[in-house]
Design brief:
The protein is α+β, with helices and mostly antiparallel strands and 250 residues long. It contains nine helices and eleven strands. The chain folds into two domains: 122 residues, Jelly Rolls, CATH 2.60.120.10; 86 residues, Arc Repressor Mutant, subunit A. GO terms for molecular function: DNA binding; DNA-binding transcription factor activity; kinase activity.
Length: 250
């Protein structure tokens, strides 16, 4: 399956944190196996329980991992951006995706076949400096933290707090003060009714934390928005900073 992606020439693979952790020797081993792709927003990369044929190292694109229930309910359990690897759990032995994967921010990525990545990891397994495997495993640890924290957040915190956290995390990824998002899309990610998102967004706008008009969300007061968000935002942000620090220092 080619996912309808567009092949293109990108900048250095080192735009991805995990690829950037590699030595020059390790990077030269994997570069011939990487394909540069450009991905569109809302593209479905893989459905829940389908097998991964390719894994993705995002550079500027971002993916949402969506849990889909039999009644049609959906909820985002994690995001994968330039800090990680989409499909990382496949290196543990399971080829099937545990979630639906949707592109929530268009951009670029490098993809590699699962078989090729498994061979590279197996070939380097006997060397002390197999940084790719070490970095992926550390990334998986962070992903588990994000998933478990998200479960607690969905259970204990108000929708207004969850929306503030989710928007802040999204703003962090795009490195911009403006997001192009409909309320229906946000509701899909948060697993709630669109009307509930409308009410929560109105409250945030009334407090002058955001401006929302015609699918454009502008962050107008980050400091107060962070105070409004639940503790989960700071916990997840700190965990991502720790991942970056540890991988870069290894």
């Amino acid at each position: 399956m080619d996912y309808g992606l567009t092949m293109k020439t990108l900048q250095s693979p080192r735009q991805n944190l995990l690829l950037n952790s590699l030595s020059e020797f390790e990077l030269t081993q994997i570069i011939p196996l990487l394909e540069a792709v450009s991905i569109c927003t809302a593209e479905v990369i893989v459905e829940m329980h389908d097998e991964f044929q390719y894994l993705f190292f995002p550079t500027t694109a971002c993916f949402s991992l969506i849990n889909c229930l039999s009644d049609g309910t959906t909820v985002e359990v994690a995001q994968v951006g330039s800090e990680g690897l989409l499909g990382a759990t496949a290196i543990l032995g399971s080829k099937k995706s545990l979630t639906q994967v949707i592109v929530n921010k268009e951009g670029d990525a490098y993809r590699i076949s699962l078989a090729s990545l498994q061979k590279i990891i197996a070939r380097g397994g006997g060397r002390r400096s197999n940084m790719l495997q070490k970095s992926i495993l550390r990334y998986l640890e962070m992903l588990i933290t994000h998933t478990s924290q998200g479960c607690a957040c969905n259970r204990r915190h108000s929708l207004e707090q969850q929306l503030a956290r989710w928007l802040l995390s999204s703003f962090d990824r795009v490195e911009s003060k403006t997001l192009s998002l409909t309320q229906e899309t946000i509701a899909y990610y948060l697993g709630v009714r669109r009307e509930s998102v409308t009410e929560a967004a109105k409250k945030l706008q009334k407090e002058n934390f955001i401006k929302y008009q015609r699918g454009q969300i502008e962050l107008t007061n980050r400091y107060e928005m962070e105070n409004k968000a639940c503790e989960c935002y700071e916990i997840l942000k700190t965990e991502q900073i720790n991942l970056t620090t540890e991988v870069q220092a290894a």
